[in-house]
Design brief:
247 residues, alpha/beta, seven-stranded mixed beta sheet, 10 helices, 10 strands, binds benzoic acid
């Protein structure tokens, strides 16, 4: 399942992702001169905010298109997959917003984060937790089930519970300062159709154009009673926000 990213489509229709990033930036609380890794930096919108707070930031993302957009902002950034980080004892903190749910090899990600951090370094992040986009995932599952010709629905996301992620962090040598699951219904100014086009292209990549249209229309029809609220589309986001320290 490989999701494809188009940075300009993302900047035009999904800028709300970075706009919701300030609570987790507050939790990171970057200090002047700190060296920080932004894991899954996307187009670099938050990376730039961290840099403007006086830290020295390096971004990594598995998408070339996103890294090009981050580099255009003048940021230090490179293409690197979150499950094969190649840093050793280099960073005061690793930060991640709205990216860890795309990294389904979470054990490799946590090992790489731990290796990248200096002793006592912080790992601070926010991503989709248990129940995130539940109505959307249910609808996608149902649409695949009712069209055998689409093949099997493979959920591309990792949305752990607090208990599960806490355990994983501890197993990788982190002390947890804070972890919480936060429901955050999120208005989608560009509508649900645009959200599906941006974020479910890995799920639909084997469908032909007619099947793809069927998928989009049927998912939209199924989620409308749950997510079209007072004339506006609202995604059923649930964030898992945490702050941990390498011990
Ligand atoms: C999220 O930020 O929670 C998310 C975004 C796209 C797909 C799935 C989850």
């Amino acid at each position: 399942m490989s999701q494809a990213w188009n940075a300009s489509q993302y900047i035009n229709h999904a800028s709300f992702v970075a706009e919701h990033g300030s609570p987790v930036l507050d939790l990171l609380n970057p200090k002047l001169g700190e060296r920080i890794l932004d894991l899954g930096c996307g187009d670099g919108a938050l990376t730039q905010d961290i840099e403007q707070m006086g830290a020295s930031v390096h971004g990594v993302d598995s998408s070339e298109s996103m890294i090009e957009a981050a580099q255009k902002r003048g940021l230090s950034a490179e293409v690197m997959s979150g499950d094969s980080l190649s840093f050793h004892n280099e960073f005061d903190a690793v930060f991640s917003n709205a990216a860890l749910h795309w990294m389904i090899n979470e054990e490799s990600v946590l090992s790489g984060v731990s290796n990248a951090l200096k002793p006592n370094g912080r790992f601070v992040g926010e991503f989709g937790g248990q129940g995130n986009v539940g109505a959307l995932v249910n609808a996608m599952t149902k649409v695949f089930e009712s069209h055998a010709e689409f093949g099997e629905f493979v959920n591309p996301w990792y949305f752990p519970s607090v208990e599960e992620y806490k355990q994983k962090l501890q197993d990788h040598g982190f002390h947890i300062h804070y972890i919480e699951l936060i429901p955050r219904p999120t208005p989608l100014e560009s509508g649900i159709g645009e959200w599906l086009k941006i974020f479910s292209n890995g799920i639909t990549k084997n469908l032909n154009p007619k099947q793809n249209d069927q998928f989009l229309n049927e998912v939209e029809y199924l989620v409308k009673p749950h997510l079209f609220i007072e004339g506006q589309w609202v995604a059923d986001y649930v964030r898992l926000r945490f702050s941990a320290q390498k011990v």
